[in-house]
Amino acid sequence: MSMRIDFDPSDFNVALATSVVVFGFDGHQLVTLLATKVGEPYEGAHILPSAVIQPAEAPENVAKTILRVLTGRDDWPLEQLNSFANPYRNPSGRVVNIAYYCLVRLSDELKAGLESKGYVWVPVQKVPSMAYDHDEVLAYARERFKRRVKRRPVGFTLLPREFTLNEIQRLYECALGKKFDKRNFRRKVLKSQLLIETGNSVRSSAKAKRPSRLYMFDEKKYQTLTLKGYDIVYF
Question: Is 180 exposed, middle or buried (0-12, 13-18, 19+ CB in 10 A)?
């Protein structure tokens, strides 16, 4: 059976865009970055960081440009999510959104720089309704991240270089939406042999009875395990 796939360009008027779900971890909560829509439609509404894709541009390059403008670098872990193509998702016309998500390490400097530009970090559980279909994009990204966190050491990016066991436990609890038994969690995470005790400590709060030990990831160990083909399952 033959099929005709040629077309008359005059019959089409379609644009491409990309949105990037940016996840960070502030030590207590998983947060995502929101922008404010400028101009109609939906002026003043919350949206994900987004941009139009020009005809000669690759979607991933546009997504990396967004990250570079936002954070000053474009080498954060970035992954394509899906194409969102509801014909009525954009009242301006037919716009297909090729969405991505990425993980960034929060710092006071990064947060202050973005906030000065009008961006806001919002806990993923408290994100207000957004324009277009960005609620759907965020929900898709959260599910993808939940699957990835079970098999990939996302803490390499999201946590500071040195962190406490409480912080890594809280990260996984936020990512997976469930609580872990403290003793069992620590036993499993230390058994992974991917953590190095730094010898440093920090007092997590004024009420803390004693300082918490600080750990860091053993990146060489992780690279060795993955090169050997081990499937590192966390929790």
Answer: middle
